[in-house]
Specification:
Blueprint: E1 6-10, E2 19-24, E3 36-41, E4 44-50, H1 65-74, E5 79-88, E6 98-99, E7 103-107, E8 121-122, H2 132-144, E9 149-150, E10 154-158, H3 166-174, E11 179-181, H4 187-193, E12 197-207, H5 217-241, E13 260-261
Parallel strand pairs: 1-4, 1-5, 5-12, 6-9, 7-10, 10-11
Antiparallel strand pairs: 2-3, 3-4, 5-11, 6-12, 8-13
Helix pairs in contact: 2-5
């Protein structure tokens, strides 16, 4: 089986990033994830996983996050860059803006969120939930590309598939959250549990409920289509700029050290 140290998770269409992409299927103890694409970005082997399936047929609350992350682990992934569409809660953010969040809050309700349901009891540290090395590289590359980027934001993840109510968004605003999405958790948690570096790059697809008259999937799709070329270029530059080997200066690779009760 081909291996790749870098993985990208995102929506349908990002497989175009890869030169000579090969479609592959991988089984896991948690189920079978969508078909993935293995290829090269620059001179680096990388794998792309379409989070919602090739036809965007899986809603956010039904995504098999454990199978997805475990499959990437089996393929040798040491770093994951995830792409997420989000709604803006922070009034300074506008549709089309790019966000590299530094923290998240989990308001999901029914998703399996761990690989460790049995002994040894495992408590991973998420004081820094996103890999600082990947974040720093994303931010640096975005600045070099002159992209409209916010490098400090808290993402709140909700269950979906419905959009949030105006009252929920007002609550989130008062709690200090900046953007809202439906897919950021438990991806980040599961990656850390497998000692994989993980960071997210988000784009604002709409203003959150109560900040505009209504929200439609069509609006989200239209913004996504406009922003995608920018995200693609950012991903290419970031993958090429990342060191070939992890430097050990982030909390990710040693996440299981001292995390277990023996």
């Amino acid at each position: 089986m081909r291996k790749a140290k870098i993985a990208i998770i995102g929506g349908t269409g990002f497989e175009k990033l890869f030169a000579d992409a090969e479609k592959i299927r991988v089984g896991t103890p948690y189920g079978i994830p969508p078909p993935m694409f293995m290829g090269k970005i620059g001179n680096k082997d990388a794998v792309f996983l379409p989070r919602h399936g090739i036809e965007h047929s899986v809603p956010p609350h039904k995504v098999n996050y454990r199978a997805n992350i475990y499959a990437l682990h089996q393929l040798g992934a040491e770093r994951i860059i995830a792409v997420n569409a989000v709604g803006a809660i922070n009034k300074d953010f506008k549709p089309g803006d790019i966000i590299v969040p530094h923290d998240f809050a989990d308001f999901t309700k029914q998703r399996p969120t761990t690989f460790y349901d049995e002994a040894p009891v495992t408590h991973i540290d998420l004081s820094q939930p996103y890999c600082p090395e990947i974040r720093e590289t994303l931010i640096k590359c975005a600045k070099e590309l002159s992209l409209p980027l916010w490098s400090h934001a808290v993402l709140v993840c909700t269950e979906g598939p419905r959009f949030e109510t105006s009252a929920e968004i007002e609550m989130f605003r008062r709690l200090g959250f900046d953007v809202v999405g439906m897919t950021g958790v438990p991806e980040a948690v599961l990656a850390r549990e497998l000692a994989i570096c993980y960071a997210a790059v988000c784009f604002v697809s709409n203003m959150a409920a109560g900040m505009q008259e209504r929200i439609t999937p069509g609006e989200v799709f239209n913004i996504s289509r406009k922003v995608q070329p920018k995200i693609e270029q950012l991903l290419i530059e970031t993958v090429e700029a990342l060191p070939a080997e992890r430097g050990g200066k982030c909390p990710c690779a040693n996440a299981l050290k001292n995390a277990r009760i023996k």
